């Protein structure tokens, strides 16, 4: 059994991994494997640390592709953690680690497109994030934004996060990026619903009103509600949940604490969704 005190490599021992380690520089990526899928993570081996650190890729395969004026890049979500040797090394002052060489390897099964399902058969995508569980979903959502959507799809993001003490929603991880994403020319603009814990309903409404900037073709924060994500919110992300034909054309991605992922997975399976169409990733 593994737990929060186990290493990244122990927790993910059964997960799919690329067979090769790739050498990269902190300044930019040099010929890194570009075949990673949205939602995957990297084993990162830094100098002087025996165990690899595991960090989610929040950028997309397209971002990693070298171009004439751009070598390509990988963006990683790395939480400041003095007790995680790899994270602590990567949080050192920029001038100390710039141009250092590290080794990375792609891994993870929580990916778009879902294994065994052809993307053309998917008409509804529900993304459900708890806290930093938003990280792999950012790669998936950004990839969908960069890719013409055929067939036309319904895309929903339900995001549960702790309300900032400052009541400034820009402090919530990736919310600014989500709000400002342009979807002009796309057939579908995602529906974003935010659930805020540790605040009142009145405070949630006030924060939303001060934060939203409605604009054509840009993701809008459709609601900011006080409380935790509930069954009705999950059902709202998958319309026609009682329609067996519809369920064959929907997929759900859930990422967050294990207790949350287990509970939400059961809810979707109880709705009649197939196991392979409900993908989960627990965040330690």
Describe the fold and architecture.
33% of the residues are buried. Mean pLDDT is 86; it is low at 28-34. The protein is of the alpha/beta class and 284 residues long. Helix 6 (175-180) links the parallel strand 7 (154-162) and strand 8. The strands form 2 sheets. A 6-stranded parallel sheet has the order 9-8-7-6-10-11, sandwiched between helices. The protein is globular and about 50 Å long. The chain has 10 helices and 11 strands.
Query: What percentage of the residues does DSSP assign to strands (E)?
Result: 15-25%
How many separate helices? 10
Assign an overall shape: globular
**Biggest β-sheet: count, sense, barrel?**
6 strands, parallel
Strand order of the largest sheet: 9-8-7-6-10-11
Q: What's the arrangement of secondary structure elements?
A:
Elements: H1 8-11, E1 22-25, E2 41-45, E3 53-57, H2 61-64, E4 76-77, H3 85-90, H4 94-97, E5 101-107, E6 124-130, H5 134-146, E7 154-162, H6 175-180, E8 191-197, H7 201-211, E9 221-226, H8 231-236, H9 244-247, E10 250-256, H10 258-270, E11 278-282
Parallel strand pairs: 6-7, 6-10, 7-8, 8-9, 10-11
Antiparallel strand pairs: 1-5, 2-3, 2-5, 3-4
């Amino acid at each position: 059994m593994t737990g929060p005190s186990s290493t990244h490599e122990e927790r993910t021992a059964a997960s799919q991994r690329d067979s090769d380690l790739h050498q990269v520089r902190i300044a930019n990526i040099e010929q890194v494997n570009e075949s990673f899928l949205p939602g995957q993570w990297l084993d990162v081996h830094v100098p002087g640390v025996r165990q690899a650190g595991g960090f989610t890729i929040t950028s997309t395969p397209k971002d990693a592709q070298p171009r004439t004026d751009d070598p390509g890049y990988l963006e990683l979500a790395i939480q400041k953690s003095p007790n995680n040797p790899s994270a602590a090394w990567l949080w050192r002052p920029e001038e100390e680690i710039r141009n250092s060489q590290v080794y990375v390897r792609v891994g993870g099964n929580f990916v778009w497109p879902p294994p065994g399902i052809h993307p053309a058969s998917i008409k509804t995508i529900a993304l459900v994030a708890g806290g930093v569980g938003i990280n792999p979903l950012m790669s998936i959502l950004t990839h969908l934004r960069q890719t013409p959507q055929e067939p036309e799809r319904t895309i929903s993001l339900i995001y549960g996060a702790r309300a900032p003490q400052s009541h400034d929603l820009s402090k919530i991880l990736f919310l600014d990026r989500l709000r400002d994403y342009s979807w002009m020319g796309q057939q579908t603009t995602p529906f974003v619903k935010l659930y805020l814990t540790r605040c009142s309903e009145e405070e949630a409404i006030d924060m939303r009103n001060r934060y939203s900037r409605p604009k054509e073709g840009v993701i809008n924060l459709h609601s900011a509600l006080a409380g935790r994500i509930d069954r009705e919110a999950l059902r709202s992300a998958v319309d026609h949940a009682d329609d067996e034909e519809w369920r064959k054309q929907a997929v759900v991605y859930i990422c967050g604490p294990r207790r949350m992922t287990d509970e939400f997975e059961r809810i979707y399976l109880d709705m009649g969704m197939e196991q392979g169409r409900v993908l989960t990733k627990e965040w330690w």
